[in-house]
Design brief:
By secondary structure, this protein is of the alpha/beta class. The protein is about 40% helix and about 15% strand. It has 13 helices and 13 strands. Strands 1-7-6-5-4-2-3 form a seven-stranded mixed beta sheet, with helices on both faces. The model has no long low-confidence stretch (mean pLDDT about 95). Bound molecules: ligand 0PR. The site of ligand 0PR has 15 residues, from helix 4.
């Protein structure tokens, strides 16, 4: 049976062959798969029975929280979608509001969360630089102040890897009460460890006083899915996502899920122990260097790269995009379209080597001929 599964798996795109270009998943190192396996059969949502598993979650959340200047509060999750739904749920309970303001760049899981929670999403357009218009945003915040759940900004947008200016919004839109949810599922770890390098990323962490909740994923950078976290400003916010569970020994259950594999905590903990900040920084630097290389090579063959990548996402425009995508897929270069007209996107994960970048550039040169 295992052999059949291996055969079946080989029919889906391969990471080691450099075929996966558009997905935000990664090929995790063996030690993280092993970590998952050791704790796969424990339940994070039965913390009285599985105390050690729970302690791995507490330590991982503390570690992540410290990286984002938080106070140790939050939960591990199954990824960005769960984190975003949880954040908006908590903030809806906190504020009693019904409106969420977010730029058009927000990931579709924000719209999904609003639909599930019956919240009304007010979208803000992007300028020609793909950044949200902060003065419009502030006007909307003032207009809806009494009914507002949260403003959502993204640190590392899905299509361009832009870290949106959370600090600037809060500075310029300061004379009104509101809270911010930061979706840092993709870019959070990357920007936070690259922060002191050559790019000046906006501050989007808990140092900004209106930031109440922050999503961050480990499975978009290094871990096997599922592995993410929702970080919270306070214990009070944690309480809002804690539910009665009468027959459980603790009488309570955290998060929107029920059974949660302890494997997630083991993986998160292993990342903090093995890589730590320095290991993540090294990885992030390497991925960004490869993204800059890909962007330079694409420009050399006359391709219109939309902007110099700040995070390891390269987005570029080609004529006849749909024909090009089809042709690349037939060569096992599985690239993704974006909502930007004519644009394609490569997410540079650790499997996207210089060699893979060259293969893509050579194919494009032929196809664009
Ligand atoms: N927030 C942001 C900014 C994201 O980019 C994503 C996922 C999410 C939240 C949701 O995260 P989860 O999918 O972990 O719940 N962005 C990727 C995307 O839409 C998701 C993805 C991953 C898509 C792998 C395809 C794929 O094969 O591109």
């Amino acid at each position: 049976m295992i052999e059949s599964l291996r055969r079946l798996r080989s029919e889906d795109p391969s990471y080691s062959e450099g075929e996966v270009l558009g997905s935000m998943t990664v090929d995790p190192p063996e030690y993280l798969l092993e970590a998952f396996k050791i704790f796969a059969n424990t339940n994070l949502n039965d913390p009285e029975m599985f105390r050690v598993t729970r302690s791995l979650e507490v330590e991982s959340v503390r570690w992540l929280s410290k990286l984002f200047y938080g106070y140790g509060h939050g939960f591990l999750t199954y990824g960005g979608t769960e984190s975003n739904i949880t954040a908006l749920y908590i903030l809806r309970e906190l504020t009693g509001g019904e409106i969420v303001i977010a730029p058009k760049s927000a990931h579709f899981s924000i719209r999904k969360a609003c639909k599930i929670l019956r919240l009304h999403l007010v979208e803000v357009g992007l300028g020609s630089d793909y950044y949200p218009d902060l003065s419009t945003m502030c006007e909307l915040i003032k207009k809806y102040r009494d009914r507002l759940v949260a403003v959502v900004l993204t640190a590392g947008t899905t299509e361009l890897g832009i870290v949106e200016p959370v600090d600037e919004l809060v500075e310029t839109c300061s004379d009104v009460d509101y809270v911010v949810h930061v979706d840092a599922a993709y870019g959070g770890l990357l920007a936070q460890v690259l922060r002191d390098g050559d790019v000046r990323y906006p501050v989007f962490d808990f140092r900004v006083d209106k930031v109440y909740t922050l999503s961050v994923d480990l499975h978009k950078l290094v871990a096997p899915a599922p592995c993410g976290a929702i970080l919270l400003r306070s214990g009070e916010l944690e309480e809002l996502a804690t539910f009665d569970a009468p027959y459980m020994p603790s009488g309570k259950q955290r998060t929107l899920l029920g059974t949660r594999s302890g494997g997630v905590a083991a993986v998160a903990w292993a990342v903090t122990q093995v890589l730590g900040v320095e290991g993540l920084k090294e990885l992030a630097r390497e991925l960004r260097a490869r993204a800059l290389y890909l962007s330079r090579r694409l420009r050399e063959i006359g391709v219109d790269v939309i902007r110099e990548p700040e995070l390891p996402i390269v987005t570029f425009k080609v004529p006849n995009r749909d024909r090009i995508i089809k042709a690349l897929w037939s060569r096992k270069l599985y690239i993704y379209p974006t909502s930007i007209p004519g644009a394609l996107r490569v997410v540079v994960g650790s499997h996207v080597t210089y060699e893979v970048a060259d293969r893509l550039v050579n194919s494009l040169r032929e196809l664009l001929g």
